[in-house]
Amino acid sequence: MTVNTETAAAASQNALGFGHFIMQADFVGKALLVILVLMSIASWAIIVIKGITLVARKRRSESFLNFFWNASSLESVEHEITTHGANDPFSHLTIHAIHSQAHHAKYGAAKLEEAGSAGDFVTRTIKKVLDEETTRLENGLAILATVGATAPFVGLFGTVWGVYHALVAIGVSGAGTLDKVAGPVGEALIMTGLGLAVAIPAVMGYNWLTRSNRVILSKLDAFAYELHTFVSMGQPLAAGTDNAPLQNVRPGPGANRPRAA
Predict the structure, then answer these.
(1) How far from 40 is each of 118, 199, 240, CA to CA, in Å?
(2) Of 111, 133, 206, 232, most Cβ neighbours within 10 A?
(3) What's the pLDDT score for residue 244?
(4) Do the Cβ atoms of 245 and 71 come closer than 8 Å?
């Protein structure tokens, strides 16, 4: 008799679980599950794609900055960017600043967007590029924030919905024993676990990408100050030295540098 009871209990436990929960779930429960799966796919795709892009962007930025600070003139920097393209935020900012200076020197203030001195026009161009780079870096982060904030509640709603139907079914059957209640209610808690499993990676990925983007933008903002100085200086790059590397004329900590952002 005891063996039969244990066998029946084991069979009952095996009958319950994630598969049984999906089979017994109605349209709402299955729809919530699909939403969580789509949230998970979207968040992981953003984390992987932006993570790979972040690593590549950091490597290209370091390579460009090393070339920039050892270049003999802005003309050589412009030639390098024109030849190989602007593949990182720093080269993108540099080529726009150089072109804006050349454009204003050639055409002057022909339109409202070009009004003011050459320095003012370069400053506005730098600000515009900084805004573009900020938007590009933050692209997709809103999805991660949304998934991290809403996925637990989607899972909780699925649990509440599952518990409600489980209790209704138990009430209709009239079997109110603990083993009849605990199984369906425990199955319904699977949705809460899935919601947390989707939200936690999204929140961690969001924090990691936000921190990395903040570091890049901070370096880009500091670089913009020095770039504005170099572009505004024109010729020569260093007093009395026509071919001095750019790194020899970096502004000091107390230098009065125009803000670019």
Answers:
(1) 49, 8, 60
(2) 206
(3) 44
(4) yes
CA distances in angstroms from 260 to 74, 122, 137, 172, listed in the order given: 19, 9, 18, 70
pTM reported for the whole predicted model? 0.73
ω into residue 89 within 30 of 0, thus cis?
Answer: no
pLDDT in tens, 146-183: 999 999 999 999 888 878 777 777 777 666 565 566 66
In whole angstroms, give the CA distance from residue 220 to residue 214.
10
Question: Would you kindly state where each structural domain of the chain is located, as residue ranges?
Answer: 25-249
- Cα–Cα distance measured from residue 204 to residue 210, given in angstroms and rounded to the nearest whole number: 10
User: For the chain, what is the HEC assignment?
Assistant: CHHHHHHHHHHHHHHCCHHHHHHHCCHHHHHHHHHHHHHHHHHHHHHHHHHHHHHHHHHHHHHHHHHHHCCCCHHHHHHHHHHHCCCCHHHHHHHHHHHHHHHHHHHCCCCHHHCCCHHHHHHHHHHHHHHHHHHHHHCCHHHHHHHHHHHHHHHHHHHHHHHHHHHHHHHHHCCCCHHHHHHHHHHHHHHHHHHHHHHHHHHHHHHHHHHHHHHHHHHHHHHHHHHHHHHHHCCCCECCECCCCHHHHCCCCCCCCCCCC
Ordered mean pLDDT values, 10 residues apiece, the chain (261 residues):
45 55 72 92 95 92 90 84 86 86 63 60 86 90 94 90 76 64 71 92 95 92 86 53 44 42 37
Res 119: pLDDT: 67
